[in-house]
Sequence to fold (156 residues):
Amino acid sequence: MKKTNAARLLDAAGIKYELAEYEVDESDLSATTLAKKIGQNIEQIFKTLVLRGDKSGVFVAVIPGNSEVDLKKAAKVSGNKNCAMVQQKELLSLTGYIRGGCSPLGMKKPYPIFIHETCHLFDQIFISAGQRGLQLKLNPEDLITITGAAVCDVAE
Fold:
């Protein structure tokens, strides 16, 4: 299994993780499908969403796979009046990642990260390893520490 930049960052920090590989269906990149493919609870699958605020610029929300980002909550916690998802065509140039393979670890720039508070309900969560078909399973506290994420409610 090929190591990604996100996995190498965890290795360098001495953080324990597991890699979970799955078959990608380009027509269905949903977290629900991913959860079924790797046999995990959808609430433990966290998706990485990239947003842009009217004041702060780009920031990242990491939310459970069965949730949608709440733009009002996300704007408030990030110090903005309003925010919106970045356009899919901007994702690669902003983060170095593509849709369905965007990890909160190893982005091109260190954007502010806000992780949903339900991460604390689990000993282990799954995030993208930085490529489609590969997830990282790790302790949410380790993810919070390595990314400097703020823990808050950013989902509907």
In short: The domain at 5-152 is CATH 3.90.960.10 (YbaK protein).
